[in-house]
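We modelled the chain as a single entity of 636 amino acids. Its sequence is:
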Amino acid sequence: MTTFAGVADRDAIETEMPWAEREVPRTLYQFVTHAKETWGQRPAISFQLLSDPGAPAETLTWAGLHARVTQAANLFRDLGVGEEDTVAYLLPNCNEAVFTLLGGGVAGIANPINPLLEPEKIASILRQTNARVLVTLKSFPKTDVAQKAAKAVEMAPDVTHVLEVDLLRYLTGLKKFLVPLIRPANPVAHKATVLDFNAEMAKRAGGSLDFVDADRDRVAAYFHTGGTTGMPKVARHLNSGMIYNGWIGKRLLFTEDDVILCPLPLFHVFACHPILMSMIASGAHVVFPTPAGYRGEGVIDNFWKLVERWQVTFMIGVPTAFSALMQRPVNADLKSLKSAFSGSAPLPVELYRRFEKACGVNIIEGYGLTEATCLVSCNPVDGPKKIGSVGIPFPHTDVKILIHTADEGVRECGVDEVGEICVANPGVYAGSTYTESDRNRNLFHYDIYLRTGDLGRMDADGYLWITGRAKDLIIRGGHNIDPALIEEALLAHDAVASAGAIGQPDAHAGELPVAYVELVSGASVTEEDLLEFCRGRISERAAMPKRIEILDELPKTAVGKIFKPDLRRRAICRVYDAALCEAGIAARVVDVEEDRKLGLVAILEKTGEVDEAALREALGHYTRPWAWKGAARDAA
């Protein structure tokens, strides 16, 4: 591991040689084999089904993991999976998810899918990636993953085999006896062959592959991005990009003596590439607590004791997880803990300081995205950390802040000038990022710089700052408002755990800023109190929220990001229903759907006779389209 204290260290690494000349494995199988040969009997991965610090756990060495990956790859090839065929998995965290990701990428193309999606979205991904095999759960209490998988495969007829993982094998004692008695039924109507994943793996050789591992770069994984609403986009990941993420981890962050606690899901790029690939490259040990990670029962409550149990040196989190942890006492010995990594969303300054004071360790903020096979930048582990910045671009990663103007076309921004963050590095599959070619149009500047859609700036010291999402900007009468201005103000209040600001439709200004907040457990504050609190902290008058609403819990993605489309839906429903009521129109909003071409569309239902002209007059002043329930979208 090299010292990483600033830009000079990054530049020194880059000047050693171009990335193309570095001696790194060319395939995933070479990558895992190198780990086995280097750290064979050291611990590689651990999984515990329950969150209790004393709960049983399964740990595999690097030699053991290599054998399982080999068996999985041989199984998939036996089932007809070639290099261009897809092995999808719909799994919570478990060791089998690791076997499938790596074995699937060795035999063909691995495709992790978010189990929180609805069956229709899952089926859409299966069809889009031409999946032949799906690895998923056997029916199990307190989860509907198996039932979702069965419905999805009905709508994805090219899936020939479903391989089931039974979590029962992780249980002991009375629970192991009871689960078969209460296992939910899961009748299937699809035509795919259903097999036991572990039983079938056990029939295959684990010493070597039964097929030739072609020594060349190719697509080894598909990762969908978004997809909680609308149809997900699917990004292609090359062997080289995945291995680059691991190389970064070894060179700058981890050694074989490190233990990483990762409660993030193994369908998300953060857990799979920056973490798992870095473990393979460095020989470090990663621990996955419970199938649901941070969402798992008791994980937040037992988190610090898990750190103590496993002698964790690095913990991985997202801002919402850090916020939840700060509502629990630090009730364990944390002397092993060196650092905490935060990604997926900007970290509020007050939360950073609160965590540092409570735990005595720094949070290292980083930045990555699915379309770039993840890693882009992070604050230097051994150097100055600028709170709120996502740090310095990694070696062999070129970040440009670009802006498109009518007069000058595309130009590079100056120091601290805000523009779009654009990235070129070994993780960017230039020109072919998405499986759907139409989505790759206008996705690159100068053919190689991926347009991230994130707004940001580069300061004089070479640190990258994210200022917002281009699509998240609130546009009030032509005035661009960064939602972070509102969110940072609200998060400074002791009672606020998390906050999300959006633009709600407005008949005159186009959009008005509104905010939704989730309170710290046990806190009591009114919406009027919060508005008053903001008045002294939001200097930009146009950014002052028109309304603040307190929710029991803000909608979040599986990795803890605040999911703003749901907040926008909530605002559209409220505003449009109010407009319909005021105009005396017998209709109401029953849903807000995402249309690929139109964006969010309000779906209306009649509650009586409706004057169509009056309806168009009432809603015609708003920019968001509408449609009758069950009707074509040309009304919008």
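As a brief sanity check on the tokenised model: The longest helix spans residues 564-582. The mean pLDDT is 93.
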